[in-house]
Specification:
Helix content is about 25%, strand content about 35%. The chain is an alpha+beta fold. Strands 22, 23, 24, 25, 26, 27 and 28 form a 7-stranded antiparallel beta sheet that branches. Strands 1-2-3-6-5-4 form a 6-stranded antiparallel barrel.
Length: about 500
């Protein structure tokens, strides 16, 4: 129903009268305040509302826009049955031209053209052209274009990227660039004002501000993120998080969202962690990390009390990788690692970070609690294999033809025998390979390629021993299964289907 014009006018008049009345009342109330009190209120208001203009002038020139491009066939439309008018529609509106099915070469050997792939942000790390951003901003890009605030554009070279920390470094051919100042993350306080500059939705040099909501927020193995309420949206990724001294304290990387847009929770990579990664990327183009070969979990309050630990801290070892530094040092499942190189493990995520930041080949010590007694063990830190090496190993292991097949519908598993080559590659005496995981097994997290070494506390060497172990298992309770995945082994509970 449409509102009559006279009613709208009456509402406006009433609102105006009310506003005037409130203004008079506020003025009358202020007249009764002492001058000193009124001055104090004004000063408090000034202190509570920071001015970011100087920070923008100071740091703004160091923030860059990053565009990524990918090469697509300019004849892809022909393979899809498109005419020239349809191709022009895609080009005119900046849409990627669909590629030919299966990635086949275009007819007639025609050349490729570059299409926009994504937009992100970054900042000048050094005056000679090193720029830091997120790894996911440049991942898969054929070309990276860096635009400075003075509108100069440069084609950048990807020096290196690290997916585990989401940090990347690119290099442009420029000199005397305005590099950022790096801040001390340890001095950052919860509640402190911070500012972000970036290119949300491609809108270059956009400034947003907020406060630090939390520190040491665990959302990954290697990074304790800085949580803020600074508005971060697609395109802000890789841009700097700046404190009130004009120093970079983080790299805006992630948001928590159910809609895909900003919902008041943003995460930034602590800049000290990012600098450590960038130094390795600039030196060797990759990041090497330490590993000790254990599968770990948190120590609950109940477990801590039952084993005499006192409080829930440390990392509970659930499995030890064969022939790993931990295996050689004598670490056993059930041990609780309480210290690494003398530093206390307060929560389970501390251990991967400490070990990961240790150079492979370093001799280190760990302190474990075993059957109520503390024990110190020495080991030499190994190197975490690259993602490419893990993928190649998995593909090579999965290419062998298995002998024999077994299906267990209650557990949701399809299993096959391990070949001699697979056993040798995994360094195991026996086991069975998962060829399919559905229902109960899928809910427990198992997947194709996993290797089952134990079932219901019984060793599994082949399909026959698996069947024997299953026959003795209590089907009314969750069944524990020791699973090998890649270089790691862990216990999983499967609730059999009835």
């Amino acid at each position: 129903m449409r509102t009559p014009a006279w009613m709208t006018l009456k509402s406006r008049v009433s609102a105006t009268a009310l506003a005037s009345a409130l203004t008079v009342a506020a003025a009358a109330g202020a007249a009764f305040l002492p001058v000193s009190a009124a001055h104090a209120q004004s000063a408090a208001a000034v202190r509570g509302l920071p001015d970011f203009t100087d920070l923008v002038d100071q740091v703004g020139p160091s923030v860059v826009n990053i565009r990524t491009l990918e090469k697509v066939s300019n004849n892809a439309g022909e393979a899809l049955g498109m005419d020239e008018d349809m191709l022009e529609f895609f080009r005119r509106f900046g849409l990627p031209v669909p590629k030919a099915p299966g990635g086949r070469a275009p007819k007639g050997g025609q050349s490729e053209e570059e299409q926009p792939r994504g937009v992100g942000s970054g900042f000048v790390l050094t005056a000679d052209g090193y720029v830091m951003t997120n790894a996911h901003v440049v991942e898969g890009a054929d070309d990276v274009i860096v635009t400075l605030t003075d509108k100069r554009e440069f084609k950048a070279k990807i020096v290196g990227s690290d997916k585990r920390t989401d940090v990347a470094v690119v290099k442009i051919d420029a000199k005397n660039l305005p590099a950022v100042k790096i801040g001390d993350v340890s001095k950052l306080r919860v509640g402190e004002w911070v500012m972000a500059i970036g290119s949300p939705f491609g809108l270059e040099n956009s400034v947003t501000a907020g406060i630090v909501s939390a520190k040491q927020r665990d959302t990954g193995d290697y990074l304790p993120f800085i949580q803020t309420d600074v508005a971060i949206n697609p395109g802000n990724s890789g841009g700097p998080l700046i404190n009130m001294r004009g120093e970079v304290v983080g790299i805006n990387s992630q948001i928590y969202s159910r809609s895909g847009g900003f919902m008041g929770i943003s995460f930034a990579i602590p800049v000290d962690e990012a600098i450590r990664v960038s130094e390795q990327l600039r030196t060797s183009g990759k990041v090497t990390r330490g590993r000790i070969g254990v599968q770990i979990g948190p120590v609950t309050k109940e477990v801590a009390e039952s084993i005499g630990l006192g409080k829930p801290e440390g990392a509970l070892v659930s499995a030890v990788e064969p022939d790993s530094p931990s295996a050689k040092a004598g670490v056993e499942p059930g041990d609780v690692i309480t210290k690494f190189d003398g530093k206390a493990i307060e929560k389970v995520s501390d251990l991967p970070r400490m070990v990961g930041n240790t150079k492979p080949g370093t001799k280190s010590t760990i302190t474990v609690l075993r059957r109520g007694k503390l024990k110190e063990l020495s080991m030499v830190i190994a190197e975490v294999p690259s993602d490419e090496a893990v993928k190649t190993k998995a593909e090579r292991g999965g290419s062998k033809t298995p002998q024999g097949v077994l299906e267990n519908k209650s557990l949701g598993l399809s299993l096959s025998e391990l070949t001699a080559a697979q056993k040798k590659e995994l360094s195991v005496k026996g086991g069975v390979r998962v060829t399919a995981a559905v229902d109960a097994a899928a809910r427990a997290g198992l997947r194709e390629g996993d290797v089952i070494l134990q079932l219901a506390n019984a060793e599994v060497t082949d399909l026959k021993s698996f069947e024997a172990a299953w026959a003795k298992a209590d089907k009314s309770k969750p069944v524990n299964v020791l699973v090998r995945r890649g270089d790691w082994a862990q216990y999983v509970l499967i609730r059999p289907s009835k």
